[in-house]
Amino acid sequence: MPGASSPAAAQGYRSAPAPLDVVLRVNGAEHRLALDARTTLLDALREHLHLTGSKKGCGLGQCGACTVLMDGKRVKSCLNLAALVEGREITTIEGLAQGDQLHPLQAAFIERDAFQCGYCTSGQIMAGVACINEGHANSPEEIREWMSGNLCRCGAYDHIVAAIRDAAAVTGSTRGG
Amino acid sequence: MYPFALERPRDLNAALALRAQAGRNDAPVEYIAGGTDMVQLLQENVRRPEKLVSLAGLLDDRIEVGPQGLRLGAAATMAEVAAHAEVVERFPIIAQALLNSASPQVRNQATMGGNLLQRTRCPYFRDVGYVSCNKRVPGSGCSAIGGENRWNAVLGTSENCIAVNPSDLAVALVALDAVVEVGGPGGDRSIPLADFHRLPGDTPHMETVLEAGEVITAITVPADAAGLRSHYLKVRDRASFEFAVVSAAVALDMDGSGIRRARIALGGVGTKPWRVPQVETAMAGASLEPARLRQAAALAAEGAQGQGHNDFKIELMQRAIVRAVEIAGART
Amino acid sequence: MNIAVIGQPISRVDGRAKVTGRATYAAEFSAPGQAHGVIVRSTVPKGRIGSIDSTKAEATPGVIAVLTHLNAPKLPYRPHKGFTDPDIGERLHVLQDDRINHQGQPIGLVIAETLEQAVHAANLVDVTYAAEPAIVDVGRVDPVRPTMQKTDQGERRSPETRRGDAQDALAAAEVRIDRTYVIPRENHNPIEMHATIAAWNGDQLTLWDKSQWVSNVAEEIASVFGIPAENVQVISPFVGGAFGSGLRTWPHVTLAALGAQVAGRPVKVMLSRREMYYGTGYRPHTVQRVALGAARDGRLTATIQDAYQETSAYEEYSEALTNATRFLHSCPNVYTRHRIAPMNVHTPTYMRAPGEVSNIFALESAMDELAAALEMDPVELRLRNEPERDEFKNLPFSSRSTRECYRAAAERFGWSRRTPEPGSMRDDRLLIGWGMATATYPMNFAPAAAMARLLPDGTAEVMSAASDMGPGTWTSMTQVAADALGLPMERVKFTLGDSRFPKTPPHGGSMTMASVGSAVQAACLKVRDEALARGGANDLAEAMQRVGQPLEASANVKPGGAGKRFSMHAFGAVFAEVAVDPDLGETRVRRIVGAYGAGRIVNPKTTRSQCIGGMIGGIGMALMEHAVVDPRNGRVPNGNLAEYAVPVHADAPPVMDVILVEEEDPHVNPLGVKGVGEIAMVGVAPAITNAIYHATGKRIRELPVTPDKLL
């Protein structure tokens, strides 16, 4: 046979199992969904819940644009099968502000111009919130290391670090009293 | 992704009964724990299980330090282990290797067991557009040999596979003589980490000695590996969030300013986490004098085989050993 | 006017939308009933499709249709060339025949109800190939003369230029440098992957697309389907980075529209990251020989640049690879030649600072080598060769602030403390190196249009079919409009990203501020004058109250004759400090200082973002970026974001300093702006590699400088 056969030839198709009933808790609300077992949390958010603030930049955990908080910890939503995160509390960028009141890091991002195209921004902010909460925002060097899972192709890193420092100072003083 | 049935068993025995097989591509049933590598491989159509068995909530996630040493439950996350005060104090090289791995997000999710079972980053393995990959499709050939191979191994290779084991953690653990605790339908067993991964040989698709249905339940590190002067050195093209070009894990038992015993392992260069006993022997009783260290480190090149683009790793890994020993030796 | 908004560091007007996740990018629109399309791609670089069998795919649950060349409707593909399309050759036609022109070429489209179903079914299309020998190894291609060289300013030039006799002068030179510099293929890799949603309503087509040029997408897709351009509306309010990848209308846009036509419902196609390496262009691999001859006093006597770049076998993409060599430094004898290496790959395209960034890497590396050979300070060498005018065009520069840039950046950097000997500066184990390079990029100004509407309540709406891939068009145009209207910014609503709005040139080549900005200004001045006249008042709000109905004005701007009287470019100087681990070969950039003379700066805040972004891009280019092209089959094995390394946070230098020197240029365009998006990346890579030489004594002439090259 000339040339190579496509990988599909090596394996026959099989019919997809029935959709699963999945209850997702996102930004404090419960959503009952019928999902393919293959659906990732990111695709569930974007395609099923129309919460498109979490961005898809690779689907492979390599860019960080899909970062959300799960039970308060940052994770890449593209690396989670939605059906396996039932019962977890998911916070996305849409759930960060209190009504019209932006989270201090959101406000700092605007003030510091910590983005250009804005596509990595949700992930940067969610990762930045976690970075501050974890106590990893004590110096620019520490922030740079602990934010390295979030690519910014526009190269706004310097401003992102400044915004995280600003917000860390604000939230720190809030906590302190 | 190919379709699969998702199983969420209620207890470990039920999971084991499903006889999933980790670390192979031809297995019809596979486990998923943290999932950070599995989901990538599913997305890229590299792995195509018919059934995916979730281990969520079924495995021990405790981290314990006692007189026997360190015990890491298989489900403990990379982040939890890296932040654990006693790990940081007594087994700092483990924390260091972990903090040099992946991203904070992945470390929050990825588990100890999964880390040891993550698959190679060999790009020919991960791109199904390449027909030939003996790891992915046994007998299909190796695209890395004769291709761009800067990413590939120089130690433990065979004519069938030159893929690198990508784990940083495993490099540190193998230097500390860690043991993998395994549970399975046939009962529990313990496997020294050094024997856990297979060399590719003629069967690169079989990466570990795990049998069908077996899962990693814990990793233990003996107490005599505690309190050593250690360093995990990772060389990479960018400053963070990247797999190793070359890495070296070094733990030293010092006798004044001399080395009583050195434990040394390499990453980024081997088809499995690579211990270098010949270097360790040569360093025993040695001072930290650079020429002496270089001489000993040169022994790491024994049996190393470059493929062209990765020839530099043979030199670089020796330098990494020397530097890591110097840094570890200078610690107090 | 008492409201100074131009020149103010104003926060982005779309900032709130971006930080709350409400800014909507192409794939995030939702057309009723939209299905998902996934492209099937070839796994050979050249040949014919032997057989293609979609039976299994079609039988998969949820699959609506599978299109291949066997069943796809024949498309008219009427002639169309946008400014960003190569002059020579013809774009790839999709699913029209069995020919394979490049690895990863679209050969099918699967449309299914869900994304998961479509992705899976695409795997099940069985293909066999009649493969043919392919040329995919750039190292084995004999470069040929291109038909023409198209420069960024839209000028077409001969690919070979001469001034004086460079060969003789080089042979006679007291000091000579003759070296070859290589830059591998690089990919734009915007974090947003390309995506298109297509929805037909009769013969009317709506496309939500990631694009840097919506009006051209409309025209091109209209030509493909043989319908009037007015029938196609392209919507693209936010673009998640592009850096040039969104300048052309790539095959997936046609596929989305075709899929929607066949399926009879809207179809969304979002490329995977791997697909981004097979169909949205890239910076071509370049090989450049640069020879410099100089007198002992440093004065250049000969400059030769012989450069070639890869392109595809079906289109002749040719970038401005030799432009800057002709005028950047004073030299009586200059020869440049530009050639192309056609291969069975997909067509490369403009990527941030196309041409210049590659050109300057070679030229400014060679200048550094010359400085070393002369034992002369690299800044001094450049000052001694500072031209009084553009010696190629024989025109004065409209403005040129190189001297001020060298001075300001050197002073901020502390350049006078540099010890010239390589390896002479250390920080413990690390070798410290300081290097610099000159930067330049043309001032591009192309015809553009805008419309302004004043409302009786004293607010304004301004629109133009421009794009904002990140520089801040939303914001800067609002500033320009507010300034021209004399209104506070919050009373002005500027909108972009819709092909129904007045036409603009492509959003690239740093021309948006000059072109669209001038159009916005003109439209606003026009409608304001009309309002004041008709309302009979000096105050616009009062005038509009009196007018009592909306007033509209449109404006078209185009360059005047300044280009015939002046050579118009932005200039800059970049200084970098690196730390190199001599044992392990790792290089980290510690500081970058860039000074730029780029005319008037509309918004220093967003401008600084562009500049630091260009620096990060330059770090990637210098130290890590390399799309590996498999010489056996043209695949890109590292076609992802893990093995294709781009800079991360930890790669950002602790010190990034941007100096925007005062520069007033009345000639370039009505706003006096030159643009900074491209020049910000120019000169960064050679500043870094020159610093690496200073640190180590090693001259690395092939990018990227990964650890193996410094062992």
Question: Could you give a short description of this structure?
Answer:
Chain C: This is Xanthine dehydrogenase family protein molybdopterin-binding subunit. The complex is a heterotrimer of chains A (177), B (332) and C (711). Chain A has 177 residues and is α+β, with helices and mostly antiparallel strands.
What key attributes describe this structure?
heterotrimer; B: 332 residues; alpha+beta; Uridine Diphospho-n-acetylenolpyruvylglucosamine Reductase, domain 2; Enolase-like, domain 1; five-stranded antiparallel β-sheet; four-stranded antiparallel β-sheet; 13 helices; C: 711 residues; Aldehyde Oxidoreductase, domain 4; seven-stranded mixed β-sheet; 15 helices; 26 strands; 24% helix; globular
Which oligomeric form is depicted? Answer: heterotrimer
Termini separation of chain C (Å)?
62 Å
CATH fold title of the largest domain in chain C: Aldehyde Oxidoreductase, domain 4
Main CATH class of the largest domain in chain C = Alpha Beta
Pfam families (chain C): Ald_Xan_dh_C, MoCoBD_1, MoCoBD_2
Region (Disordered) (chain C): 145-167
Keywords (chain C): Molybdenum, Oxidoreductase
GO molecular function, one term (chain C): oxidoreductase activity
